[in-house]
Amino acid sequence: MITINFAKKEQIKLISEFEINEFNSEAYSFDMLNDMMKDNYLLKDNDNIFVLLDDEDLIGYIIFHISKDFTDIFKIFIRDNDKRKGYATMLLNKVIDLAKRYNSHKLMVEVRAKNLNAINFYKKNNFEQISIRDKYYKNPTDDALIFERSL
Ligand SMILES: CC(C)(COP(=O)(O)OP(=O)(O)OC[C@H]1O[C@@H](n2cnc3c(N)ncnc32)[C@H](O)[C@@H]1OP(=O)(O)O)[C@@H](O)C(=O)NCCC(=O)NCCS
Q1: Cα(85) to centroid(ligand 1), Å
Q2: What is the CATH number of the domain that holds 95?
Q3: Tell me: the pLDDT tens digits for 72-81?
Q4: Which residues form the domain of 138?
Q5: CA 146 to centroid of ligand 1, rounded, Å
Q6: Residue pLDDT, tens place only, 95-112
Q7: Predicted pLDDT of residue 40
Q8: Residue 35 Cα distances to 29, 52, 69, 101, angstroms
Q9: Which of 75, 81, 84 for mutating ligand 1's site (highest number of atoms within 8 Å of CB)?
Q10: Taking the model in full, what pTM does it have?
């Protein structure tokens, strides 16, 4: 059964492994993820990572930060075998529900210009590109596209 919950401390190690495999120089390390879970002033301690589970199996996650004005999506990830099943959309919708409860009225995300899968995903979910940061990413060098969506 598919469920979405706040990440637990014991899931952070696996998330950090997915991060390193997928995001290279932008990966969140184990320590960064642990710190992050203490960071969100609006929510309880570990309330800024949702994990999507198939029974006990961790299939994907979304890392975000809600503030009163806007909500940042830092990362969204779904394991290879489980892509294109609507799981990332489910995670995003879970964040949207929570953001609305905190009167956050805008979602923002930054994406590598070469990450066409993610760009298509955000466009499909009604995000619009609002700006571009030239050569923002390193290893490899890439522009950052900033996408926004009203809630
Ligand atoms: C981007 C990502 C999170 C999408 O996850 P997903 O669970 O496959 O996405 P969904 O199934 O919810 O897709 C919803 C829609 O987004 C679009 N989309 C998603 N992946 C796509 C792809 N590879 N190519 C084209 N469109 C895509 C489609 O319109 C899709 O709807 P459809 O399947 O009915 O055509 C996933 O590909 C991923 O983990 N990528 C690696 C990590 C990453 O780059 N994250 C984003 C940067 S933070």
Answers
A1: 9
A2: 3.40.630.30
A3: 999 999 999 9
A4: 2-150
A5: 17
A6: 999 999 999 999 999 999
A7: 64
A8: 10, 21, 22, 24
A9: 84
A10: 0.96
What does the H/E/C string look like for the chain? CEEEEECCHHHHHHHHHHHHHHHHHHCCCHHHHHHHCCCCCCCCCCCCEEEEEECCEEEEEEEEEECCCCEEEEEEEECHHHCCCCHHHHHHHHHHHHHHHCCCCEEEEEEECCCHHHHHHHHHCCCEEEEEEEEEECCCCEEEEEEEEEC
pLDDT tens for 12-67 read 999 999 999 999 889 999 999 988 877 666 676 556 899 999 999 999 999 999 98
Q: How many domains does the chain have?
A: 1
> 23 and 75 in contact (C-beta within 8 Å)?
yes
Q: What's the Cα-to-Cα distance from 40 to each of 10, 25, 36, 45, rounded to whole Å?
A: 19, 24, 7, 7
